[in-house]
Write a structure and sequence with these properties.
This protein has helices at residues 7-34, 37-56, 63-95, 101-133, 147-157, 159-164, 166-171, 176-182, 186-197, 223-252, 254-261, 270-303, 305-324, 327-331, 337-351, 354-360, 362-365, 371-407, 412-436, 453-465, 471-478. It has 480 residues and is an all-alpha fold. α1 (7-34) packs antiparallel against α18 (371-407), α10 (223-252) runs antiparallel to α16 and α13 runs antiparallel to α16 (354-360). It comes from Protea cynaroides.
Length: 480
């Protein structure tokens, strides 16, 4: 059909960015433990900015050339985004105290919601401007010449907010936990804490080197790591995998809703069509996505990670069943306000639930020397689930729809099957969480690695007691 991108092209453009994200999470996660959080943090951002500009700054105009260029830069954009996951979560977890650590990490992750809203606003603004300047071309003008510039601007503007944060990323100190427990450099850790606490620590005892933690006693590829942390790593990876299967499929389900609640694409031009889609996404973000994130910020250190994750999976399953089971008989014909409320709740309880907690828990469960590596592995498992969910959902809906049309069946049956399967996947996530995931609320990071507890506690106790004048601010450090 003219004006409709073939499913194969859509699948490639979606999958290539997610494959890059998988690689970025694994590679940058490993580098974060080997080289340091701060050094790699700036590199991930630089890669994101350059790739975002590259996505829009394609020098070619033919469709094949543009798609090839887009896929190339989307891959590297995915690598940068993937690297940002383990580093952002770990840095925040290592700077925060155990009382408010969950809220702080959730607040970092919740910025995605505002990013979605901002991107929708930018898209709406550019489309409105170009539509007005071009004289509001009619529906028959599907792709006006100026549209080539519009989509490039939308992509490149996304690099600006990220670029504005680069200075603060490269100037931030390394986390004291990494410096002390991984690099074994207590004096540098003290200097880094001085920057964070904004107090002088010149009165520290000269014998501080005597409390240097013992070197690591086992490696990542060892039976001891498998015995101590294998279950935690499997739980984090599996939970993230299952929620991303559901979450990314659910995002693609929006395309099925556009036809019922937006003007038909045959009646609008390219600018108006993009404006309407962005407007719909902004409404979803304001009404469900962003509130879901901030409910997690408010309650995660009161209710706990495991309870919120189980609740999110359970309610998400209920909503998907409520949409999916009657979809063939009712929603496919009467996609009214009740349908939109149920669909909005799927985003709310994804974010006030496993979509956020799966980002938080891996940053709290593992010892400092493996923290970003394990977070990267967990996130990579999630993005593999995202590939299966998004590409699989796209092809399944296309193939089922074609088969139903060929045999004269109602097209809603295929969508009903897909939604019910997503509900079952959510229930599986709840079961895995109940049996495998450990609660981290109210516990220090070191309490998850018993071998290092005595060393870490003695380190922070010494820092606290070394100067009466610093007693109050160092209490916060001792609570980490």
């Amino acid at each position: 059909m003219e004006g409709v991108t073939p499913p194969s092209i859509v699948s490639i453009t979606i999958a290539i960015a997610l494959i890059g994200t998988v690689i970025g999470q694994l590679v940058f996660g490993w580098l974060g433990d080997q080289v340091g959080r701060r050094r790699i943090y700036g590199l991930a951002l630089a890669l994101m900015v350059a790739s975002s500009i590259g996505c829009g700054f394609s020098i070619c105009r033919t469709r094949k050339c543009v798609l090839t260029s887009m896929c190339f830069f989307r891959f590297w954009l995915g690598v940068g985004i993937g690297g940002d996951y383990p580093l952002s979560a770990t840095i925040m977890s290592e700077f925060a105290n155990k009382v408010t650590r969950g809220s702080f990490i959730a607040a970092v992750f919740s910025m995605q919601g505002f990013g979605i809203l901002t991107s929708s606003a930018v898209t709406m603004a550019i489309c409105a401007i170009f539509n007005r300047v071009s004289g509001s071309p009619g529906p028959l003008v599907r792709t006006p010449e100026s549209a080539d510039l519009a989509w490039r601007l939308i992509l490149m503007i996304g690099a600006l907010p990220a670029a504005m944060t680069y200075y603060w990323r490269v100037m931030m100190p390394e986390t004291a936990r990494y410096t002390a427990l991984v690099e074994q450099n207590i004096r540098q850790a003290v200097k880094d804490m001085e920057k964070v606490l904004d107090v002088s620590m010149n009165e520290m005892n000269e014998d501080i080197d005597q409390i240097l933690p013992d070197p690591p006693s086992y490696g990542f590829f060892s039976m001891r790591f498998l015995h101590r942390h294998g279950r935690d790593l499997f739980a984090c990876a599996m939970s993230w995998f299952l929620i991303d299967v559901v979450f990314y499929s659910n995002n693609l389900f929006q395309s099925q809703i556009y036809g019922s609640h937006l003007p038909p694409r045959t009646q609008v031009n390219a600018y108006q069509d993009a404006f309407n889609v962005a407007k719909f996404q902004a409404i979803i973000a304001i009404c469900s996505t962003i509130p879901g994130y901030w409910f997690t910020v408010a309650f995660i250190d009161r209710i706990g990670r495991v309870k919120i994750q189980m609740m999110g999976f359970f309610v998400l399953a209920l909503c998907l069943f409520a949409i999916g089971i009657p979809y063939y008989m009712y929603w496919n014909i009467h996609a009214n306000a009740g349908f939109l409320i149920l669909y909005g709740l799927t985003f709310f309880f994804s974010n006030f639930g496993p979509n956020t907690t799966t980002f938080i828990i891996p940053a709290e469960l593992f010892p400092a020397r493996f923290r970003t590596t394990c977070h990267g592995i967990s996130g990579a498992a999630g993005k593999i689930g995202a590939i299966i969910g998004s590409v699989g959902f796209l092809w399944a809906s296309q193939n089922i729809h074609k088969r139903e049309v060929d045999h004269g069946y109602h097209q809603g049956i295929g969508m009903m099957t897909s939604l019910v399967l997503l509900g079952v996947t959510s229930l599986a996530g709840m079961v895995f969480t109940f049996f495998l995931t450990r609660e981290t609320m109210g516990r220090s990071l070191e309490e998850n690695e018993t071998e290092d507890v005595d060393n870490a506690v003695s380190l922070f106790t010494s820092l606290r007691n070394s100067s009466e004048r610093l007693h109050a601010p160092l209490n916060a450090v001792a609570a980490l």
